[in-house]
Design goal:
The protein has helices at 6-10, 14-30, 36-54. The chain has 3 helices and no strands. Helices cover 69% and strands 0% of the residues.
């Protein structure tokens, strides 16, 4: 999985971000420890979660 930047996350819809978050989580779980792939997936999850935290919640 390629790194999802904060800028890219901001340009996606909330539904897309939830899908990307699931993809990043799966990539993180599948990647070998201490690998670049695992680091990118973790950073992607952080960027996506940070962007989701800035959005208003819908009841």
């Amino acid at each position: 999985m390629k790194l999802v930047s904060r800028f890219e996350a901001a340009s996606r819809s909330t539904a897309e971000l939830h899908g990307l978050l699931a993809e990043a989580f799966n990539a993180f779980c599948a990647a070998p420890r201490s690998s670049a792939e695992r680091y990118d997936a973790l950073q992607s999850m952080r960027n996506i979660e940070d962007e989701l935290a800035t959005r208003p919640t819908v009841p």
